[in-house]
Write a structure and sequence with these properties.
The protein is mainly beta and 256 residues long. It has helices at 15-18, 190-193; strands at 32-39, 44-52, 55-61, 66-74, 77-86, 91-100, 106-112, 118-125, 131-137, 140-150, 153-161, 169-177, 211-216, 219-228, 234-241, 249-255.
Length: 256
């Protein structure tokens, strides 16, 4: 599955094999507790979500010895995201720290990678409703760009890497969304951080709805289709990666 903000590292059963599950497992409740996904090569992954009330505590996958993201809150704001990975051969940790202004708007995301290198993203809120960002690494501007919104939903990102150098390259990422309910709609503070690390992540998860198509420079890269439960939240997803069919998958969502 698409990996966005680490939270979407998930895999699972095919829709056919999932048909033996009790439908009540994924038709009630409004907090996502599990995704089971199967890739086209037959690989099956289960991702579990844990909460304290409506605050997300951790997300973990069963494919490796450890594949886990842990979240830290300050009040109702997510202020740290720690990712741990260990497959028995390689292991590493990455950390993202989040900072907010007095209006609880994200103004900085600081990513420390497995080597200890630090990238800092600074966000500026513009009068026209867009958000500008710069990504700084080793005192150099690595990237800059603009994020566009439809209501509260970020859907488009214009980004330039290595601005002002001979290696400058620019592109536009754009996502579309359905009019249903995101599995993360009720997770406290989640919508605040989805614009974080804009030069590191691709596309955006849904705040209210669910992502459908993802394009780069108007070329279709990814597509998701869903079935929904009585709460209009996804119960199944079929995902297509138009550049790498090994990533194609089907998934089932479970709620508490």
């Amino acid at each position: 599955m698409k990996k966005l903000l680490y939270l979407f590292s998930a895999v699972a059963l095919t829709l056919t094999s999932c048909s033996s599950e009790d439908d009540s497992n994924n038709s009630s409740g409004t907090l996502l507790t599990k995704i089971i996904e199967t890739y086209d090569d037959g690989t099956v992954e289960t991702t579990d979500f844990e909460y304290n009330g409506n605050k997300i505590v951790s997300v973990s996958s069963d494919l490796d010895l450890r594949d886990e993201t842990i979240y830290t809150y300050t009040g109702d704001l997510i202020t740290k995201e720690e990712y741990f990975f260990d497959d028995g051969i390689d292991s590493f940790e990455e950390v993202i720290d989040y900072e907010y202004d007095s209006n609880n708007r994200l103004i900085k995301s600081i990513r420390t990678d497995e080597y200890g290198d630090i990238e800092t993203d600074n966000f500026t809120y513009n009068s026209n409703g867009t958000v500008s960002f710069t990504t700084i690494a080793n005192s150099t501007t690595k990237a800059s760009g603009t994020i566009y919104f439809n209501g509260n939903q970020p859907y488009k990102k214009e980004i330039t890497e290595n601005p002002g150098t001979d290696f400058e390259v620019s592109w536009v990422e754009e996502s579309t969304f359905d009019l249903k309910v995101s599995p993360f709609a009720n997770v406290t503070g989640f919508y605040k951080i989805i614009i974080g690390t804009p030069s590191y992540t691709r596309g955006y998860p849904g705040i209210a709805g669910n992502s459908l198509d993802f394009k780069i420079d108007n070329t279709l890269e990814e597509r998701s289709t869903y079935t929904y439960n009585g709460n209009n939240m996804p119960t199944t997803e079929t995902y297509i990666d138009f550049n790498n069919s090994d990533n194609n998958s089907t998934a089932q969502y479970f709620y508490n």
